[in-house]
Specification:
alpha+beta; six-stranded antiparallel β-sheet; five-stranded antiparallel β-sheet; 6 helices; 18 strands
C-alpha cells in the first residue's frame, strides 16, 4: 500500500501527461482538486488506490482538457437556464459551468401543480437551483390562458443555508402559458453538503399587477455532487479601510460567487458594512462590484466581524481575474 505522499506524486505525474493540452492555471487547479477528492474517497472506501488514482487523474483531465467538456460520470450538462442566468455564452464558460453543475429530475406535485428541480449549480459555498412550474395535467398555468410573468413562494425552507435570494419569472426568457421557471440561490456559512432538502410553500403567480395564490407544499430531496471550483485568498492577512485595519478570515471567489469575512477591533455600524468597497478587477480593466448578504457581528472577545456572501450577475472565469479589492487593499490572484 502506497503512502499519501507517493499517491500525490503519482497524481502530479498523471497531470503532466496532459501538458500538451495547454491547460490554464484555473483548469490545472480544478484537475488537482478532483484528483485529491478521489484520493480521499479511496482512502475512506479502502479501495485499491493506484488503479483508481490513475482513473481519477485521467477523468479530471478529460473533463477539462478539450474545447468542449465531457462531464464526469453520472453528470449531465447544465440546463440552458443556467446559461441565461449567468450570461454563459463562450465554449470556455460552458466548459467551466459543466464542471460545477448538472441537470436533475426531481419532481414534486401538490394541488394540481407539478414543480421539477431542473438543474443545480454550485461552487462549494453557493448553490443555485432552477425549478420548472407546470400544471399536473399539462394545461395552462392560469385558467384564462394568460402567460404568467413572475412566480414566487411565500415559504422557502432549507435548514442548512445562511441566506438566499431568487430570480423569478421565466429565467429562460421565453413566454409560455404552460410553464414558468424560478431560480433561487443559497449561500452557506459552511461548505455545501452532497444532499439538500428544500421545501417550497404557497406559490404566487403574477400577471402584471394581478396575483394568483396557489396553496401547496412541494418538497425536494436532491442528491448531487458539486465540484469545489473556488479559490481562497489572503486568509489571515491584514487589510486597511480608511484609518482602520482588519484581518481577513476568509476571502473566497469562484466563477459564480464569493465569500468574505473580516474581523476588526473597531466597532462597526451598518453604514460601515454598506460602504465597504469590494470589487473584482479583471485583466481587461473591467471592474465588478460585489454585493451580497449578511452584515456586522459583535464578537464575545470585543472584536467585530462582518461577512458578505453572494453570487455574481454573470459568470467570471478565474483566468480573467487580476485581483480582489476590499477597502483600500488589493489582493492579487496568483
Amino acid at each position: 500500500m502506497e503512502d499519501i505522499y507517493e499517491l500525490l506524486n503519482n497524481a502530479e505525474m498523471n497531470l503532466k501527461e496532459f501538458e500538451n493540452q495547454k491547460l490554464s492555471d484555473y483548469e490545472s487547479k480544478i484537475a488537482k482538486k478532483q484528483i485529491l477528492k478521489e484520493v480521499r474517497k479511496m482512502k475512506k472506501s479502502k479501495k485499491t488506490w493506484r488503479k483508481t488514482l490513475v482513473a481519477a487523474a485521467a477523468c479530471a483531465c478529460v473533463i477539462i482538457g478539450m474545447g468542449t467538456v465531457s462531464v464526469a460520470a453520472g453528470w449531465l450538462p447544465i440546463p440552458d437556464s443556467f446559461k441565461t442566468i449567468f450570461g454563459i455564452s463562450t465554449d470556455e464558460e460552458v466548459a467551466v459551468a459543466n464542471t460545477m453543475g448538472t441537470s436533475t429530475n426531481v419532481v414534486a406535485e401538490d394541488n394540481g401543480y407539478k414543480i421539477s428541480a431542473e438543474g443545480i449549480i454550485g461552487d462549494g459555498k453557493n448553490m443555485g437551483i432552477v425549478f420548472k412550474v407546470e400544471k399536473s395535467d399539462g394545461s395552462t398555468l392560469l385558467e384564462n390562458g394568460n402567460v404568467p410573468t413572475e412566480v414566487d413562494f411565500m415559504g422557502i425552507n432549507n435548514e442548512d443555508y445562511s441566506w438566499y435570494h431568487g430570480r423569478t419569472g421565466n429565467v429562460d426568457s421565453n413566454n409560455n402559458a404552460n410553464c414558468i421557471e424560478y431560480y433561487i440561490a443559497f449561500t452557506y456559512m459552511d461548505n455545501v453538503e452532497d444532499n439538500v432538502f428544500i421545501s417550497l410553500e404557497d406559490m404566487q403567480l403574477w400577471v402584471e399587477d394581478e396575483k394568483i395564490d396557489v396553496s401547496g407544499k412541494w418538497e425536494f430531496d436532491i442528491s448531487f455532487e458539486i465540484q469545489d471550483s473556488s479559490v481562497n485568498l489572503a486568509t489571515g492577512q491584514k487589510f486597511k479601510y480608511g484609518n482602520s485595519e482588519g484581518i481577513i478570515d476568509e476571502l473566497m471567489i469562484s466563477p459564480i460567487g464569493f465569500s468574505v469575512r473580516v474581523t476588526t477591533e473597531d466597532k462597526l455600524s451598518e453604514n460601515d458594512f454598506i460602504d465597504m468597497p469590494m470589487e473584482i478587477h479583471l485583466k481587461d480593466g473591467e471592474v465588478v462590484e460585489l454585493h451580497g448578504g449578511c452584515g456586522p457581528e459583535d464578537n464575545d472577545d470585543g472584536t467585530w466581524s462582518w461577512r458578505q456572501d453572494g453570487v455574481y450577475e454573470n459568470m467570471i472565469l478565474l483566468d480573467n481575474v487580476e485581483s480582489v479589492v476590499i477597502g483600500d487593499t488589493e489582493f492579487l490572484l496568483k
